[in-house]
Design goal:
Glyas_Fos-R_dOase_dom, globular, alpha+beta, 4-stranded mixed β-sheet, 21% helix, Glyas_Bleomycin-R_OHBP_Dase, 2,3-Dihydroxybiphenyl 1,2-Dioxygenase, domain 1, VOC_core, 6 strands, two-stranded antiparallel ribbon
Length: 151
């Protein structure tokens, strides 16, 4: 049984946090930028360089959410998406318009497929990848009631 409780935005409370920024150290900086900016299509917002070859690129990933899951939920998501426990403590999920096409592009660009696009019980099409900067990522497409795409 899947239980869902949606919480609506409260317009009478000021938003205390304005942005979520996930900072990832990448040994192969150029490869990570190429993958996330050029392959996944995250637009570059800013780039900074400093002494000693210090570099950072800030990419716009659209709307950000922080998904906090207990261990049982993390295990259940792994079972649904991959069929076994594989996720590290932190996994990054990107909503895309076409999971099948974006997964093919990502694997052609060097990401390793952990699990192919799979329909989930919450009606999304999710794939799991090992991506640059040592991140495990999920690409997900929200499916409407009329969508019949399957793995």
């Amino acid at each position: 049984m899947i239980y869902c409780r949606a919480v609506s935005d409260s317009t009478d409370q000021p938003q205390r946090v304005r942005q979520l920024r996930l900072v990832v150290e990448a040994e192969d900086f150029a490869e990570a930028v190429r993958f996330y900016r050029d392959v996944l299509g995250l637009p570059e917002q800013a780039a900074f360089a400093g002494e000693g070859d210090a570099r950072v690129v800030i990419l716009d990933a659209g709307r950000a959410t922080l998904e906090i899951a207990n261990p049982a939920q993390k295990r259940m998501i792994d079972e649904v998406e991959v069929g076994r426990q594989v996720a590290p403590r932190i996994r990054v999920a990107f909503e895309v318009d076409d999971t099948v096409a974006r997964t093919a592009e990502a694997t052609a660009a060097g990401a390793a497929e952990v699990a192919p696009p799979t329909r989930t019980p919450w009606n999304s099409l999710n794939s799991r990848l090992e991506a640059p900067a040592e991140l495990q990522i999920t690409l997900f497409q929200e499916l409407g009631p009329q969508d019949t795409t399957t793995d």
